[in-house]
Design goal:
It is a single chain. With about 260 residues, the protein is α/β, with parallel strands linked by helices. Helices cover about 35% and strands about 25% of the residues. It has eight helices and nine strands. The radius of gyration is 21 Å and the shape is globular. The protein starts with 8 loop residues before the first strand and ends with a helix.
């Protein structure tokens, strides 16, 4: 196995901020309230509330490194991953990525529901720089890795597959497109334990060769696979460092919150 060259930075985020605008209609009279509910009012005045999902986040991902990202729901984990993957731009700050990326999100962002399973495999592979002929050659191996009788749906539209089957397919395609970096957002939580273990075994074989950003609530995965971790809360980095240390800090904050709530 090739040892990681930690002098090679594959992903660098510098002072990343992300703002979302949440619309709110202003209604000042009973008529406006009623008309608004019925959808009758024209020229409504709409105000926007600003929500900052990320606030000044900076980090690096080096070659061969596994970076874990933990935090409560709404802490900005998925937003950060989408910015790194180029799915959404930052409002402020800079993100630099070097290498081919495989993004595996729980909602299957990389796939198109109206295309067939086969068409999605070819399209995803094409985006990853794999020619159509080679992508078609890899289809049997991809379907075999995915398992779960997905091969029976190869000519069916993706939308007929369950979320678990789509997750299986996403992992199988990503693994067979030879990426330099994996971005994974809680997708390992979908599917049966046997397939989850198959994915983990495959990723284990990539250690030191491929980099990964893993967003997870599973502190066991964080400490088992990641070489470094960051803890996000309300869009900010609370702490970063060794996975065991970050896991203990995060768990302690959860236990403290539960005690206070009780």
């Amino acid at each position: 196995m090739r040892l990681p060259n930690l002098s090679q930075t594959l992903v660098r985020g510098v002072d990343i901020w992300k703002r979302f605008k949440i619309p709110h209609e202003k209604k000042h009279t009973i008529f406006e309230e009623t008309a608004g509910l019925l959808g009758l009012a024209k020229g409504r005045r709409i105000a926007y509330e600003e929500y900052w999902a990320l606030k000044g986040v900076s980090f690096e991902l080096n070659e061969g490194e596994w970076l874990g990202v933990v935090g409560a729901n709404g802490s900005g984990k998925t937003t950060l991953l989408k910015i790194i993957a180029g799915i959404t731009p930052p409002t402020k700050g800079r993100i630099d990525v070097h290498g081919r990326i495989a993004t595996i999100l729980q909602l299957g962002v990389a796939f198109h529901p109206e295309l067939t399973v086969k068409e999605n495999i070819i399209l995803y592979s094409s985006v990853m720089g794999i020619p159509g002929k080679e992508a078609r050659r890899r289809i049997p191996d991809i379907l075999a890795f995915a398992g779960g009788n997905i091969d029976k749906f190869v000519d069916a539209k993706l939308k007929v597959l369950s979320s678990g089957m789509q997750s299986r397919l996403a992992f199988a395609v990503a693994i067979h497109t030879d990426p330099d970096i994996f971005f994974i957002d809680e997708a390992l939580a979908v599917g049966d334990l046997e397939f989850r273990q198959k994915c983990l075994d495959t990723f284990e074989s990539y250690k030191g060769e491929k980099a990964m950003v893993l967003v997870t609530h599973d502190l066991g995965l964080l400490t088992q696979f990641c070489s470094r971790a960051i803890w996000l809360s309300q869009g900010q980095v609370v702490s970063s460092g060794e996975p065991v240390e970050i896991a203990n800090q995060y768990k302690a904050s959860i236990d403290l919150g539960a005690t206070i709530a009780a």
